[in-house]
Amino acid sequence: MVFFKLVLVGYLENITSDRRLLEHCALRLDLLYFLGYEIDEALPWHSTLSRTRQLYPAALFEHLFDRVFRLCVQQGLVAGDTQALDSAPVKANASLDSVCEKQSVHALVPSLTVVDHEPALAPPAAARFSAPAHQLRYEAARQAKRHQQPGSVGANHAKAPLLSNKTHYSPTDPEARISIKPGKARALNYRCSMAVDTAQGVISHVQADFADSRDSLHLPGLVQQLQQRLAANELRLRDLIADTGYSNGFNYALLENSGITPWIPVFGRYKPEAAGFTYHALADEYRCQADKPLPFRKYRPTADGNWTKHYRAFYQDCQHCAFKATCVPYMDHKQLVRSAFDAAYSRAWHRQRSRQGQHMRRVRQCTIEPVFGNLLHHYGLRRINVRGQAGAHKSMLLAAVAYNLKKLLRYQPKQQLGMAVVLPMPPPAPPVRSRYWLRIWRKCTKAPQKQ
């Protein structure tokens, strides 16, 4: 209990160092009272916090997050029907200056030569981080070509080598990945994937991922865990808002089959229709401007886990076509490549251009982006003070718990007080026939004066 109180104080006070946290708590009487320590009683050592953090499993931190999230649901802070999804890089506890080059796989395989019936010594632990030989040769050739290119005018310094996860790794934190964000320098980071409820901005899910992976690859697992947490609190997810990084045909189809409306913009290069071609759904084929068929041929996977459908015309149709000079002048036949989830892409494309789609985009910007800004600058998540993906996951969970607790303490539901006052009804006025009867009625209804 003392451990969780200490780490929550660290995230609430925006302190990322264990040493500084204990020094800060020793000087605050209110924090000592919260921790249950006397004024003259010594606090635990900073190494005790590090060992305890490594000893406790991540499931215990997730249980604490679920408990605080349940309290927010009970107080009415969570609606659950609309969730905003996004990710941001968080700096790892490792320096980019200490990265090492990966060695070839063949160079690291230990020889099985036997000397005095004893095998050769195993390679060091750092040798486990290797790369294929052809990949290292390709990266070396690319670096050499880059250095041969002329630099800017007046620049005499040599170009710095581009560090990549394919050729380098960090011996300090091997699970940290080199990533770059537009406008910022390269760094060793972890990716913080987070879901926020749009009702009051309560964090509903958070997890640590590798920084060099695509956002779209993490969406299925993230949505599954989010649905389980909402279902445990008798809530149902209906709308999911995310940016273009989560755009994927498989994700669109998965969310729609689960009864969730994906408000995720498609990539800018996507076109809902192929210019100059007409699609026939019954035959699953395209027809060109010469009315020649392009039937479906095969499926092919892509690098991001998506699937594409290939439509190809017949060789004889293209060779004797009058439009060959303008359609395929340097190819034997015409080929179209469409997404296997083209129908889901088309629905998402029309959704993002609707009035509600524009509204959802503004909702995402004003919901999850301020939460990321607060976590990175005010809740100690500007840098992970532990190493490893498991430690990063625990740190992100604790930062989210501190944020939700503060949200819960500040929340004051609006209570409207109503009061009804019953007044006696005056006697009905007789029909005004003359001024004489009007004076009589006024005299009768006048309150008697006290004598």
TrEMBL record:
Annotated region (Disordered), positions in chain = 148-176
**Where is each Transposase DDE domain found?**
288-409
**Annotated Pfam families:** DDE_Tnp_1_6, DUF772
Residue ranges occupied by any Transposase InsH N-terminal domain in the UniProt entry: 2-54
PANTHER family cross-referenced by the UniProt entry: TRANSPOSASE, TRANSPOSASE DDE DOMAIN-CONTAINING PROTEIN
Give the protein name, as stated in the record. Transposase IS4 family protein
The species this protein belongs to is Hymenobacter roseosalivarius DSM 11622
